[in-house]
Design a protein that fits this description.
The complex is a heterodimer of chains A (817) and B (164). With 817 residues, chain A is α/β, with parallel strands linked by helices. Chain A contains 26 helices and 29 strands. By secondary structure, chain B is mainly α. Chains A and B meet through α18 of A and α2 and α5 of B.
Chain lengths: 817, 164
């Protein structure tokens, strides 16, 4: 059957119970008019969220013509979400970058690769001469492959020797990474997506799974429609589709996750829902945790969070009486106040219940981007490669041995620098060279007027490698055209540790090159060498690079040593660790309830959750965790920018199901663009009534940092909260008549408003914090906002035309895995 | 018994630390983590002094400071400091000023910490279980300030001193 997958985001139901496998449903979309018999299929996986669904890329005459889900894949069993189905069209977009560009007399003009790379190398050398390697900064993405990241990591950390390398995964999964390290000793989600099939209770905290991980949400919907459905608790200030089907919806005041989670843990303890045998044998820190959470009785939680004590108690009881609990967290936790502290409490809840490492029992510290997990594993973000501890000299020495460099070459005097700090260094002038790969900070970082001012400084040399001329690339001194997914070979890993190989389906356009090739060229031109004078980047092909990466992961928690391209090609996805002992991968970690917390093996010695003060080796040794999980506790503190008379509302930002990041890809897919074509802001009906604002009215939202203007969507959002999607920057801006008939310049980007503040432990920016005020600019003239009606943005006003597309996607239910 | 002296010392040390944290946070408002955490930690210094208030009465100590001067500066002064910080924050000289301020604050944090140790020892010898409980948890919390500053200093120093 064919389906309109813009209108029906999650596709047809295939109900199933905990005893059955999740049925196969193969989703396929081919460009209109394609003769299916002429299509050659190339195995890959989707790169438009961290679920990483297995997909085949359809190719005709050297061009991508469509995609289909892979029935045999463990992640999706054939399904794809709207972004996966339609997003590939960006690859063939006519405005791809096809040649390098250099800024001359203020204009970016075409140049040869040789000219561009020579200039980059010259500037690198000049900055190193004057400022040393600490004058260089590198900011990468969550979109590349292992092979790209690993090459960048080796060049920057092993070759240039600067700690200033981070990924934009800092914005999406740094807290996931941090919380896993704090509790379990090392990174890596312990569970399996199959635990959704097996659980009896789902606890989703700040995780709008229906829009962020649409295929996993289809899996949940299938459980809810089948026999023995799980209970569901949703924590979210918005009326998400998750909340709509939840047994309990806790629409808490933004910034109060920690108070709620402490309160729930108190109830688990008070009511005897704690598995004391498990806790005593496999955790440390229980007494302090019990002491801290005791200060959060239900009524105090209700007051702090703005929900009823009754709902807190009902939620705690569902968790307390569950037998197979899956808890998840995403940006509602990670980008909110006390992020890591809150994320750790979600780990704690599963530990208190003794529900981890068993079928149907796990915690998912979810990721945002498709290859975010790999920035963490390859050391292209704030981690050292192979989950090594930068504070542990043995780990650093081991890495130096594998790279054949002097250990002092690898920066390990302090943690790798996070992106917000890097921009601060660029602001004060101690970073003079910034290379940005595949990300768009000019729209995606907080407080945009500041970010733009930093990027536009004369004294900062900015290199951007990207597939498109983003708002960031427009401000660069050199722009390099990069090959995208489908145009290069490589591997990547999703949030349940499933590794996929993505084959090259088509040639990159023009002179575009993979990031691996670009950084290999950079290293060779700089003459980066190991101790013996051999080239530091010793590989040429992605497969050679993967083999080198495998060696640095051998016997590490993320062990890839048992994987090969051959084994991965056409597989249904294989989960690390995969080695001689586990040749088919490992479905669940910690099945023996032994965690990676021995002082010599842990990836991090931990932090004080309030301040982010880094513990040192002796502090960690004093814990004597030695294989037991660490129950970290923290008290709730008020958010840094509470609402006041001038800015009486709380801002939260987020995504919609149809777009990814700053729409660099999804804006170029007609179906996705049509579903959410322009900026909007969401107001609660109560606030809207008070402000005399109705559906579609043009409103101005202002914070202490900036403002934006957009049509209003009135929803069942929690009162006192304003939601702004973060997708809408400026690269595609064309004069469009607004409801008042005036053609108005931007600003439209949500990050004009956001505060420069970050979690003290994970250093993740707090995009869901800060205060704003809203005022009406002009009436709607009867035109509703163009926000989707199919999602958390659903209007309360009647008569808004429903979001829809065409019935172009073929869904085939059933068949063999 | 001279426990009143130890209580006086704690009150003075925590209040001085709070004032310094606020001043440093505002002088370096462009160091956003320092700005936000400086204010949070200053507030906690004042809260720790509040915990001591009943004990100050019990032991006849001088009335404890009430936190005056440890609030975020309001209005014009805050704006001036912020503007000054933005201007200074764009020059390379800002790093050395920052490092000096962090070092001085670190010393004040240690002064507060050891003042709690002194009071805790006295409380133990005086066998005052309530004071022991209060001083134990406050001492633990006061250690956090120095540990945080130590982390901040260790991260900042290389960039300031080597990439000048």
């Amino acid at each position: 059957m064919t389906s309109d997958r813009i209108a029906h985001i999650w596709g047809a139901r295939t109900p199933h119970g905990p005893e059955d496998e999740w049925p196969v449903r193969v989703d396929q979309y081919l460009r209109d008019g394609t003769d299916e018999s002429t299509v050659a299929w190339v195995a890959s996986a989707c790169v438009l969220c961290s679920n990483g669904c297995g997909m085949d890329i359809g190719v005709v005459d050297g061009r991508i013509v469509g995609v289909r889900g892979r029935a045999t894949d463990r992640v999706n069993r054939g399904r794809l979400g709207p972004k996966g189905l339609f997003g590939w069209q960006a690859n063939g977009s006519p405005d791809r970058l096809t040649t390098p560009m250099i800024r001359r007399d203020g204009e970016l003009v075409a140049a040869t690769w040789d000219e561009a790379m020579a200039l980059i190398v010259e500037r690198t050398r000049a900055v190193v001469k004057e400022h040393g390697p600490l004058g260089l900064g590198f900011y990468t993405t969550g979109q590349l492959f292992i092979e790209d990241y690993y090459t960048i990591g080796v060049v920057v950390r092993g070759g240039l020797g600067t700690p200033h390398l981070d990924g934009n995964t800092r914005l999406c999964t740094a807290t996931s990474d941090a919380a896993l390290k704090e509790t379990f000793g090392t990174d890596g989600d312990p569970g399996s997506l199959a635990d959704i099939d097996l659980c009896d209770t789902l606890f989703l905290v700040g995780h709008n799974m229906a829009e962020t991980h649409t295929v996993s949400w289809a899996r949940v919907l299938d459980r809810l429609a089948g026999p023995a459905p799980p209970r569901l608790i949703a924590v979210d200030p918005r009326p998400t589709k998750v909340a709509a089907v939840a047994d309990v919806h806790l629409a808490i005041r933004p910034g109060t996750n920690l108070a709620l989670l402490n309160g729930i843990q108190r109830e688990l303890i008070v009511n005897g829902w704690v598995d004391r045998e498990f806790v005593d044998a496999h955790t440390v820190g229980y007494d302090r945790l019990a002491d801290v959470v005791d200060a959060y009785p239900p009524q105090r939680v209700a007051d702090l969070c703005g929900v009823t004590a009754e709902d807190v108690l009902v939620a705690a009881r569902i968790i307390g009486e569950s037998e197979r609990l899956v808890s998840t967290a995403l940006q509602g936790v990670y980008q909110s106040h006390q992020a890591t502290a809150s994320a750790c409490q979600i780990n704690n809840i599963n530990l208190l219940r003794g529900m981890i490492g068993r079928p149907g029992c796990t915690v998912f510290q979810m990721n945002g981007q498709p290859t975010a997990q790999n920035t963490r594993e390859t050391g292209a973000d704030g981690d050292l490669v192979g989950m090594r501890n930068w504070q542990n000299p043995d780990h650093v020495a081991d890495l130096a041995r594998l790279w054949n460099v002097d250990p002092v070459q690898i920066p390990s005097w302090s943690p790798p620098t996070h992106v917000m700090q890097m921009f601060r260094y660029a602001e004060e002038g101690s970073i003079r060279f910034l290379w940005i790969t595949g990300t768009n900070p000019a729209v995606s970082l907080p407080e945009l007027h500041r970010i733009r001012a930093i990027l536009e400084q004369e004294r900062l040399f900015v290199v951007v490698s990207d597939a498109f001329l983003t708002e960031t690339a427009m401000r660069a001194d050199v722009v390099l055209p990069a090959a995208m997914w489908g145009e290069k070979l490589g591997t990547f890993t999703n949030h349940d540790r499933t590794v996929h190989l993505s084959d090259k389906a088509v040639e990159p356009p023009g002179e575009a090159r993979s990031d691996l090739d670009i950084f290999r060229d950079y290293a060779h031109r700089l003459g980066l060498a190991d101790k013996d004078g051999a080239p530091l980047v010793s590989w040429t092909t992605p497969e050679q690079c993967f083999d080198a990466f495998k060696e640095v992961t051998r016997d590490r928690p993320c062990d890839y040593s048992g994987l090969t391209y051959e084994k991965l090609r056409g597989s249904g996805g294989i989960q690390w660790p995969c080695n001689a002992h586990h040749p088919n991968g490992t479905e669940r970690l910690y099945t023996d309830a032994r965690f990676n917390t021995a002082t010599d093996e842990c990836e991090d010695y931990g932090h004080d959750l309030l301040t982010g003060a880094a513990f040192e080796r002796k502090d960690h040794a004093d814990l004597a965790a030695d294989g037991r999980a660490v129950l970290k506790a923290a008290h709730f503190n008020p958010p840094h920018e509470p609402p006041d008379d001038e800015y009486p509302l709380l801002l939260t930002t987020g995504r919609t199901a149809y777009h990814f990041h700053t729409r660099t890809k999804t804006r170029r897919a007609p179906q996705l663009n049509a579903a959410a074509p322009q900026m909007w802001v969401e107001l609660s009906s109560g606030d809207a009534a008070r402000l005399d604002i109705t559906e579609g009215d043009l409103v101005r939202v202002a914070s202490a940092r900036g403002h934006l203007v957009a049509p209003a969507r009135i929803t069942d959002l929690r009162e006192g909260v304003v939601f702004a999607p973060f997708h809408f920057g400026y690269w595609d801006w064309v004069a469009q008549p607004q409801p008042d008939g005036v053609e108005r310049e931007p600003p439209t980007a949500a990050n004009e408003l956001t505060i420069t503040d970050w979690d003290p432990v994970s250093k993740q920016p707090l995009f869901k914090a800060g205060a704003v005020r809203v005022e009406k600019v002009a009436g709607s003239n009867g035109h509703p906002s163009l926000a989707p009606t199919t999602t958390a943005s659903a209007p309360v006003t009647s008569g808004v035309p429903p979001t829809h597309g065409d019935s172009t996607v073929r869904e085939t239910i059933g068949g063999q895995r | 018994v001279k426990i009143d002296r130890a209580i006086d010392d704690v009150g003075e040390a925590e209040t001085d630390l709070a004032k310094r944290l606020v001043a440093v946070a505002e002088r370096h408002a462009v160091e956003h983590d320092l700005y936000h955490l400086g204010h949070t930690l200053a507030r906690q210094c004042v809260e720790r002094v509040e915990v001591l208030r009943p004990f100050a009465e019990r032991y006849g100590a001088t009335p404890l400071p009430d936190g005056t001067g440890t609030d975020a500066s309001s209005g014009l002064l805050e704006t001036l400091r912020r503007k000054a910080s933005e201007v200074l924050g764009r020059s390379e000289a800002s790093g050395l000023v920052l490092l000096a301020d962090l070092r001085e604050t670190y010393l004040l944090a240690h002064r507060a910490e050891i003042s709690w140790v002194i009071l805790l020892q006295a409380a133990k010898a005086a066998r005052d279980p309530e004071l022991i409980k209060a001083a134990t948890s406050s001492h633990e919390a006061s250690q956090g300030v120095a540990t945080w500053l130590r982390t901040k200093i260790k991260v900042s120093a290389p960039q300031i001193l080597v990439s000048g």
